[in-house]
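dumping this here before i forget
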Amino acid sequence: MSPPPRTAQRGFATRPFTLWKEVATAYLAPALTAGLGGFLSGRPELTRAAFTSIGATSALVACVVGAWLHRRGRPRRWTTSAPRPVLTLGLVITAAGIAGLAGWFGSDWLPSHTPVPEAGWLERLRIDLPLSAGLAAAIVTWRWHGTTSRHQA
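structure:
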């Protein structure tokens, strides 16, 4: 009789990485949390942002990062051999940096170069986009690397 798998000894089952589930969770978790926070604190702008800029950014980043990591079911060799914290930190910095530039573009450049009027929601983009992107990238990368290393062991 063979010993049980290593993951079963720790008390959890190996769950394969499923991109659509990760994207759905990446949208729902921050959207519901921030939406509830906005509702309870009486801040309707936070409730609106929860389901638009916060949730949508999280879902988009989870989709892009997850698809890039999972690349047709065959991960890149260096992503599986890199230490989990290093890979996660690198992708968090990259995603937050790109989203920060998008937030700056949305809040500063759009009102001065297009007919989009300045509004309070544009200012939220500077915080909402990089924060949502960084959190989504961290969670998806950490989870992906965990499932990949368990399947290879």
